[in-house]
# Entry
Amino acid sequence: MPERQKEVYGAKRKGKNGVSRKAFQDFYPDELSWCYGCGRLNEHGLRIKSFWDGEESVAYYTPEPYHIAIPGYVYGGLIASLIDCHSTGTAAAAVYREEGREIGSEPLLRFVTASLHVDYLRPVRFGLPLEVRGKVKEIKGRKVVMSARVIVEKEICALGEVVAVRLPEDMKPEGMI
Amino acid sequence: MPERQKEVYGAKRKGKNGVSRKAFQDFYPDELSWCYGCGRLNEHGLRIKSFWDGEESVAYYTPEPYHIAIPGYVYGGLIASLIDCHSTGTAAAAVYREEGREIGSEPLLRFVTASLHVDYLRPVRFGLPLEVRGKVKEIKGRKVVMSARVIVEKEICALGEVVAVRLPEDMKPEGMI
# Structure
């Protein structure tokens, strides 16, 4: 992890008392922690980590050397994946917050993607950490609509919108609503 | 590669005379063949291959064991990536065709993604090959609008729309328009 990212990432992980915070995804139960984008147990995956930063959520990710499209530029499918997993993670955290519950408390919440839209505003030069910011647009029934933006060196490079829905009944392990 | 996919894939790769066909992506010049989704030289990537099948284009991909979301189901970010690269590849092939030129003839054409939309209609069970089909909706100036669908065992699991644009001037190596 580049030094700059380490600093930013470290700062974001600390709460007001300086104690390291857990990411939204760290609260997913083991059986739901294998997602290629955000599962902490998927050693081949991206393992992104999302946190609250005031009303918004934030995640950082530094692409691997092979995450390129044209040499020197980051692969758009990676950007879509980051927006996707950051948004579903935030959707769960937002519903816990709305219900006045601790993240990870039972019954557990987990969201999947119903639709994903990404506008690629400019090519993203390879070699810098990507900042993914999420905002809740709407919580309605089993659905959360999220907007997201991907920022590199203070420039917005991509805008996203995700409709996240609670995990369908037939995909759930026991203990989840 | 599962046997069933091998067969389908093999059949699609053969032209009418039984000679193996090259995929759209096989015509990309080496310096543009590193894309994580479709670059034949990116050994960490998906290396998807797209072909004409009448008026539509088709690509097949069998997810790796780690390409999961919830265990037993395919990762949505992978599906978005397949739609993305299959559509930009088809966009280039479609413009060659419209101009009455052989794919890969100079000046070379390469498209990147301006926007990507995916509707996930149903969860995709892991373990089966995914069929990605693309259709050109519109060619206008430097832009090609593509629709795509992802099919598993004859069921449409996801619908996509991609706006592809010709590679911007400042990202181009020499020899391309």
Summary: Strands of chain B lie at 50-53, 56-61, 111-120, 130-140, 143-152, 155-166. The first strand of chain B starts at residue 50 and ends at 53. Helices of chain B lie at 3-13, 76-98. Chain B has two helices and six strands.
